[in-house]
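Dear Dr. H.,

I hope your travels went smoothly. While you were away I took the liberty of generating a structure for the chain from your last submission, since the lab meeting agenda had it listed for discussion. I wanted you to have the full record in hand beforehand rather than looking at slides cold. The sequence, exactly as received, is reproduced here:
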Amino acid sequence: MKLTEEERKRYHRQMMMDGWGETTQEKLKNSTVFIAGAGGLGSPVALYLAVAGISHIRICDFDSPDLTNLNRQILHNHTRIGTNKAISGKLTLSELNPNVKVTALTERIVAENIDELVDNSDIIVDCMDNFPARYLLNESAIRKNIPMVHGSIWGMDGRLTFIQSPETPCLRCIFHEPPPGEVFPVLGATPGVIGSLQALETIKYLTGIGKNIKGKLLVWDGGKTEFRIFKAVKDPNCPVCGNK
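The corresponding predicted structure, in token form, is as follows:
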């Protein structure tokens, strides 16, 4: 689909970047992104993808916001407590950019429905808060041969990587076992940092402009304001991608 005159004005500043222009913006206009989770990470991811001009955002979350979420889950506000997060997110995103189609998916992610939820998306953005669901996303990405942007946070710290099997290690290669499931501390600015980077990785992939963080794990130490990058190694015995 071609850009409208209104879209040319809306996205003018990003279209000024070297190599961007209308052709690149049209790539975003013809892209579909699956965002798993409409919470702390999903909020900045969804907001920045919407304002960038992604054509179709499929946002999935079965939960509803409560007061303890509002220090970081900026898709929602106190009037949305008790409303499903995916539906609340759709309301916010549609007001922010009416040119973007938003599909609210209110199901819990399980093995039986993950491929249907992802549907024909071009990329998965992992904004979940538990590793069992993250592993399901990882497996679906491999089956569908599409990439996944992983982000996770704790307190002032965060992690980011771009997974595109078989080129890169998959999530199971990097995190062999899930950490204990527990309520963890988080400062709202932390998912703001990591979620923004996830959105940027997604946009780079969809436009072909820039270089994704493949085969590496970025670790953010917010207390020291330090980024460190570690090499991610493919596990030949990985139960998910070891034979890929």
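Two observations you may find useful: The chain has a mean pLDDT of 96. The first strand starts at residue 32 and ends at 36.

With kind regards,
E. W.
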